[in-house]
Structure formats: C-alpha cells, structure tokens
Amino acid sequence: MRIGLDFDDTLADFSALLVELVAARFGFDLRAMHAEGKPGRPLAGAERWDAMILEMLETDLTLAMPPKPDAVEIAQRLAERHELVVLTSRYDREMPFLHAWLDQHGIPTSDVLWTNRESKAPPARHHGLGVLFDDTARNFEDFVEHPTVPALFLGAAVSPRAPEYGAHVRAVSHWREFEVLVETLEAGDPTPGAVIRPATGSAGA
What domains can you pick out in the chain, each with its CATH number? Predict the structure, then answer.
C-alpha cells in the first residue's frame, strides 16, 4: 500500500515548536489562550506573528520541530512493508528543510509531494495513495467517494475547538491508532466514519 503522510502537525510537531516560540518571543501561553478560545496572532501582532510562521516554514527552524510521539518509530515500521509518501500543503519555498527533517529523523519515503496550498485530493488519487494521514479536517472535504481513505489526526495541533469532519473520514488520535487503521485496511476493512482504537494499551494524544 502507498501510505500518504502529512508533514506539519502529523509527522513533525509544528504546534510544539510554535508554543515554545510564542512563550519565548511574546511571553504568553498559547495552549492556555486557545483553551479559552483566544487566538495568539492578535496579541502578538499580525506582522510579528506572520514573520515567525514564515521563519518556521522557510528556514532551519523546521529542523527544530520534534517528531510527533511515536511518529518516527511507527513510520519506519510501516515503511518495512509499505511505501511512504509525504503529501504536504507547503509551498515550493518551504520544502528544502522539510526534506532535511526527513533525512535527520531517518524516515524513508518513496516520494515527497507538495500542493502549494491546493487540494490534496488530486495528487492522492494520481499517486495511488491507499490512505492519507492528515491533521486538517478541511483537507478531506474533497475525499468523498475518493479511492484514498482519509485518516484525520484528532487533536494533533493547537486548536481552540474540536474539528468537524464528514462521515467518510476515519478518525484517530495517535500514531499507534493510525498503525491499527493501516492493519485494518490491509485486512480489507475500508469502513468509513469509525474512530480507531489500538487493540491493547491506551492512546494518549
């Protein structure tokens, strides 16, 4: 199977680095603010906030993003019997350090694709992805009656509210649960809309 993996907040913990930078540069707790439904951009100032986000995407700050919990181990294990394809919404100019991050963490990929913020549905179809693991629910709006199974990473990012997603989407809350989903798809169970849970152990966020 060709497994599609989003990058920011799916493989790499963009949010963890964002929280760290916001605390260091602007002096407030982003997670606490989002829990109260308050976005960080207005408090930090739009110009300074946007410059920081560009720095995270376009410079070696990408290399400072830690992997999501268990992402490297499970991605490497999946790569032993599947092809891993990174499918990100990043722009061309944001790609160089993404490639370096994958090399840094030893994640084997057969392809790395980017959409320049366009829909992921056409490349997922064109490249024959059996499943796509992504933290952004709106990326799956075009995946109704699509051959790629959409797997939404619940709670992967700093967010003020739970995402809304369609009945065609499979929902998982941890990389271990995604591995279980891949196993169910291998066994021929494409049932949409189910929340996946690992067979043993708990699934922390």
Answer: 2-12+65-186 (3.40.50.1000), 14-64 (no CATH)
